[in-house]
Amino acid sequence: MESNNANENATNISDELQERAERNRQKALLLKKSRIVAHPYAKSENSDCTSGRLLKVQGQRVIDSGGGFLIEEDEVLEQEMLNIVAEPAPIIGTLPRCEQCQNEYKDSYLLQTFDLSVCDKCRDREGKHSLITRTEAKQEYLLKDCDLDKREPPLKYILRKNPHNARWGEMKLYLHLQIEDRALEVWGTEENLIKEREKRDVAKQEAKIKKFNKKIKKLRMEVRSSLYDKTKKATHVHDFGNDTYNEEEDTYTHACTSCGYEETYEKM
């Protein structure tokens, strides 16, 4: 019985390899055909023609169809390529088991993209297996670049165009579940992460208050300097009262009636 099962498994693997080889052959033929269709007027190596139909208009390479309109060089190729579905290599040998349902599976998006052994049936795009941007991961979980790129194993990500502006750089999207696990590795426990986040929030708030008070102080100084009359004299003239004589030291002392300043002197 065991030999029969082994023969059946070998036959199944052989059939899968043959099917994959046939798909690759068809894909290669389709790519070759697409290039020929996309460049119907391109000059061939053995051709004596020197006036090709490949033009360049405003920096864009186009093809003159000869029928009164222009075709973008890559337009036909892109349309053909849309029909080509890239299939991952089949798993040969022991099939992996899903961490959720414990069933065997041949292929998985999460396995191919993020090395997470979860089948496509158990994939939860909006919940447990949602994605998070690199910026959000660093701000929410207080992670550094080295935590994402240098700490073993480096976290995998996918690139997507920025939905806010196509001219901005591409976004790096990580698996939210793996970001949470990496945060626990860095901070130890969720309580430590919460404490550190609160500590940074307090420090940030104190910095804002300090900056605000500094601006208020500067504003007050500017207002006071604008109200100060530089032409007005600020000197005080003493108004001394009667003199008091000191017989032992043979000196006289008198005091200002307004500010209380005392002055001691000798008479000649």
Q: Which descriptors apply to this entry?
A:
268 residues; alpha+beta; 3-stranded antiparallel sheet; 9 strands; 42% helix; 13% strand
Largest sheet: 3 strands, antiparallel
Average pLDDT level:
76
Number of H/I helices: 7
Our measurement of the CA-to-CA distance between the termini, rounded to an integer number of angstroms, reads 139 Å
Instruction: Give me the side-by-side strand order of the main sheet.
Output: 1-2-3
- Provide the helix percentage: 40-55%
Which blocks of ≥5 consecutive residues have pLDDT under 50? 41-52, 80-86
Number of strands: 9
Estimate what percentage of residues fall within beta strands. 5-15%
Calculate Rg over CA atoms: 42 Å
Decide which structural class fits the backbone: alpha+beta
Along the chain, the helix and strand elements come as: HEEEHHEHHEEHHEEE
Task: Describe the global form.
Answer: elongated
Short description:
With 268 residues, this protein is an alpha+beta fold.
How would you sum up this structure, described in words?
This protein is of the alpha+beta class. It is built from seven helices and nine strands. The chain has helices spanning 2-38, 75-81, 109-114, 134-141, 145-149, 176-187, 190-227; strands at 54-57, 60-64, 70-72, 131-133, 157-160, 171-175, 244-246, 251-255, 262-265. Strands 1-2-3 form a three-stranded antiparallel beta sheet, with no helix packed on it. Strands 4-6-5 form a three-stranded antiparallel beta sheet. A three-stranded antiparallel beta sheet has the order 7-8-9, with no helix packed on it. A hairpin with a 6-residue loop joins strand 8 (251-255) and strand 9. It is elongated, with a radius of gyration of 42 Å. Mean pLDDT is 76; it is low at 41-52 and 80-86.
